[in-house]
């Protein structure tokens, strides 16, 4: 079993602490060597509705299924983490803008195919995904703020 200090107890993937630590490493590497890293935020849009309609166990099962799907569709060198109740973060190394767009499209397709049912009821998995790149002057805090702001803008467009 993985230590709880760096892994989400429910999903088994990295938690916010490990995500931040990994992001700090990526920022340092990008600044020192000129590497590229994309920071993705993913938000589960319908988690509260699932919890309200089907109970917390259904919401938890949905989060576990989402984490499994994300983990299965990234490279072993990339990072996927649960960074909040219904928020996930991904760190994808050495991808350019087109490759990140392709990866987001692929992840969205795979999440759409990740049929989720609870007690015989099919439940749709609604997500929003945004990204930014680590820049030469970025800080971990700045990247988290930038990605968070991008998510708020994306959610405003949905409303």
Query: Count of DSSP E strands?
Result: 7
Uncertain runs with pLDDT below 50, 5 residues or more? none
Beta fraction of the residues?
Answer: 15-25%
Mean pLDDT: 90
> Roughly how much helix do the residues carry, as a percent range?
40-55%
Helices and strands in order, then pairings?
Elements: E1 14-15, H1 16-33, E2 37-44, H2 47-54, H3 56-72, E3 79-82, E4 87-93, H4 97-113, E5 117-118, E6 121-122, E7 127-133, H5 140-158
Parallel strand pairs: 1-3
Antiparallel strand pairs: 2-4, 2-7, 3-4, 5-6
Notes on the structure:
The structure is a single chain. The chain has 159 residues and is of the alpha+beta class. It has a single domain (14-158), classed as Alpha-Beta Plaits. The chain contains five helices and seven strands; from the N terminus they run βαβααββαβββα. The protein has helices at residues 16-33, 47-54, 56-72, 97-113, 140-158, and strands at residues 14-15, 37-44, 79-82, 87-93, 117-118, 121-122, 127-133. Strands 1-3-4-2-7 form a five-stranded mixed sheet, with helices on both faces. A two-stranded antiparallel ribbon has the order 5-6. Strand 5 and strand 6 (121-122) form a beta hairpin. Helix 2 packs across helix 3. The longest helix has 19 residues, at 140-158. It is globular and about 50 Å long.
């Amino acid at each position: 079993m993985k230590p709880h200090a760096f892994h989400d107890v429910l999903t088994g993937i990295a938690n916010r602490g490990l995500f931040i630590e990994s992001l700090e490493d990526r920022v340092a590497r990008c600044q020192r060597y000129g590497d590229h890293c994309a920071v993705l935020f993913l938000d589960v849009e319908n988690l509260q509705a699932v919890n309200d309609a089907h109970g917390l166990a259904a919401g938890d099962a949905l989060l576990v299924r989402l984490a499994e799907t994300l983990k299965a569709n990234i490279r072993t060198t990339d990072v996927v983490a649960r960074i909040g109740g219904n928020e996930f973060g991904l760190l994808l190394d050495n991808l350019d803008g087109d490759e990140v767009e392709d990866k987001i499209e692929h992840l969205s397709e795979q999440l759409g195919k990740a049929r989720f049912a609870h007690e015989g009821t099919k439940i749709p998995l609604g997500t929003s995904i945004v990204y930014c790149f680590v820049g030469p002057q970025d800080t971990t805090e700045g990247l988290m703020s930038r990605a968070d702001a991008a998510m708020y803008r994306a959610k405003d467009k949905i409303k």
